[in-house]
Amino acid sequence: MLTVSFIWGLVVAICCFFWLILSIRRRQPGEPPLENGLIPYLGCALQFGANPLEFLRTRENKYGNIFTCKIAGQFVHFVTDPFSFSSVMRHGRHFDWQKFHYATSEKVFGHKSLDAAHGSTDESVHELFMKTMQGDALNPLVSNMMENLQYTMLQVNERDWRSEGLYAFCYRIMFEAGYMTLFGKEFAQDDKNFARKEAQRALILNAIENFKEFDKIFPALVAGLPIHVFKSAYSARENLARDLLHENLRKRNNISGLIARRMLLNETTTASNDMEKAKTHLALLWASQANTLPATFWSLFYLLRCPDAMKAAGEEVHQVLEKASQKVSFDGKYIFLNRHELDEMPVLDSIIKESMRLSSASLNIRVAKENFVLQLDNNGTYKIRKDDIVALYPQMVHLNPEIYEDPNTFKYDRYLTEDGKEKNFFLKGRKLKYYYMPFGSGKTKCPGRQFAVHEIKQLLTLVISYFDMELVEKNVKSPPLDQSRAGLGILQPTYDVDFRYKLKAH
Ligand code: HEM
Description:
Layout: H1 2-22, E1 34-35, H2 45-50, H3 52-63, E2 66-71, E3 74-79, H4 85-90, E4 95-96, H5 97-109, H6 122-133, H7 138-153, E5 162-165, H8 166-183, H9 194-216, H10 218-222, H11 231-243, H12 246-249, H13 257-267, H14 274-289, H15 292-305, H16 307-323, H17 339-343, H18 346-359, E6 360-362, E7 364-368, E8 372-375, E9 381-384, E10 389-392, H19 395-398, E11 426-427, E12 430-431, H20 449-466, E13 467-471, E14 488-490, E15 498-503
The site of protoporphyrin IX containing FE has 25 residues, from α6, α14, α15, α20 and β14.
């Protein structure tokens, strides 16, 4: 008996040994420089995860501006020269840009792949995003958000200073208003039933707590850990999804085109049960909030900390409201700016852009569909193998001192020009196309990007209009970015910063 166990043990040990040996890749002629890392399977994952920017900068110094690293079983080719980003986009037909995104979404949110047999392909999901978040579809999103932000923000009738964490404030206001803008509400705006409104608020406050709990473990889920390991995050995810069941959504008024069309698309698939359909909406809730919340925090934080920015923004808001004949009143009549009026706010645009430049750490990923040769801007050609990943890490561009002078300093007017046109940025004397990429690039670029900028701009416009505000500690240090979320988008602050606000005297 012992001998049989011993032989089995030996066979397993030999298999593991060969599996580990075989998973070490040897660089073939024509391929980028390769680093397998020291740890089997994980490769360089731990070093990369600890500080991606530092990791990539040291590899770029060592290997040049394309190199391959083994990360959690995958071979990732990092392209770091921004002039070569266009070359990567041009090789689009060799990449499957959806594979990684949709597989990750299924894994994290627990929905099923759409049933292609019924005509609901990943491609039609992508088209749905473009049709329901861009162009004319933006108008109702923007006007509903304007109303919902004021509904949420003006609940407190504070004439005295009120203190709160700035991140907690942005989270509360943006989450509630954003949730109602996407998923509608169970009451009409002129509804006089106070209890119905309170019940709605309680539901969303509960959703905020569940969202925080689930979002906390998001990086671990993307890394491949099963959600069942995290009991409270698992039940938070299920609670969030339950609120988004079609039977619950049907009770709500003013649902966005995005969710209404997504519900219709879900109805065409037989492969998913009701909870799995609800989880496709949960994926959209996450996409619409997870980056917007910290981006709003950073924009308002830098605005409050920089008197010049506040002065310029205040003047701009005042002028735009005057031109649109909008008056701030405290008698329940909301101010309104449409999409085009919001587009005429270059100072706020520059503040938001600069805040996102400093806090964004997204990873743009494409999976090779086949073996092919990648030709870069510098005429270098590199062999890429099927199923390998080609990745861009825009933070390397955003914090490059050769592109952005004094890159770690907030300069509110960095993106402003005299004539209101887009500012040009250069590297080694050449004009850059890709210098600002918090929303990704090419076909995978965020479809909600215009809405995101509009909603942050709306929040800034409204707080400037309605409140006197100040940081409790005027020159408070900027809280460090939470690096554990690097790769996922806008990084959160590691701790909150106190501010106080009160309704303006009128
Ligand atoms: C500051 C706010 C936001 C940032 C920084 C941001 C950033 C991103 C990034 C980096 C991606 C992945 C792009 C890629 O892989 O190359 C993405 C995807 C996506 N975003 Fe956003 N986003 C924001 C707000 C929003 C909002 C408000 C919505 C919806 C209302 C939204 C909806 C989506 C969707 C649906 C996708 C997936 C698209 C697809 O897979 O086809 N995002 N976003």
